[in-house]
């Protein structure tokens, strides 16, 4: 599917007659790409870990023994000069995915310890409006690091799959370089990935900011942007706790 979509992009020039606006990647593409795609259900089935592995992970949660130390390291990475350090720092303190950080996402000032985030991936059926997310450090550090990263790494000519293919391995190596002493791996993995940083972010955000009388899973689903459609006809949305279950590792 990915190869076919890439060939369509190469072979078919975008014109006013054949173009379609891809909301997820925020670009005009040949309209064939609107239909040359798996269903949302198929993507979930392909990307989700098996039910058995998920059950094992939920029954053997890992402990973050020193969350403050994790945040201190992330704070330092946000002030580094290397782009791969900025990515790891931003993933830790915002919980955003690699391609969201490098291409599709944007952050805007909100409060001292939160930003408004726009550009979420993993949503093929709905377009999420910008929403507020907490930051584990001062929001101004996040905004500055995000600006510097985008100035250093230009992914405008790449689609989302190309961004992941080009940058994921070096970022994974950098995650393990900085965080293996503080973040344990999860069941079925022998190294850390940015996916785990999303789970770490959610756990520490609960530890720091969970509002009184709000369930942890509700708060996690909200800050991670886990929603599903209730009715396709009117785009009514509700929290998707099934997606959040994949981020309860810590």
Q: How does this model look, in words?
A:
The chain is α+β, with helices and mostly antiparallel strands and 250 residues long. It is 50% helix and 13% strand. The strands form three sheets. The chain has a three-stranded antiparallel β-sheet. It is globular and about 55 Å long. The protein starts with a helix and ends in a 6-residue tail after the last helix.
Layout: helices, strands, pairs:
Elements: H1 2-11, E1 19-22, E2 27-30, H2 32-35, H3 40-47, H4 51-59, H5 67-78, H6 83-94, H7 98-104, E3 106-111, E4 114-118, E5 131-134, H8 139-152, H9 160-179, H10 194-209, H11 216-224, E6 227-231, E7 236-239, H12 241-244
Antiparallel strand pairs: 1-2, 3-4, 4-5, 6-7
Strand order of the largest sheet: 3-4-5
Oligomeric state = single chain
Q: H/E order of the elements?
A: HEEHHHHHHEEEHHHHEEH
- Sheet-strand content, in percent, reads 5-15%
Q: What spatial form do the alpha-carbon principal axes imply?
A: globular
Low-pLDDT regions: none
Rg calculated over all Cα atoms: 18 Å
State the distance separating the first and last CA atoms. 34 Å
Helix content: 40-55%
Structure keywords:
globular; 3-stranded antiparallel beta sheet; 7 strands; two-stranded antiparallel sheet; about 250 residues; alpha+beta
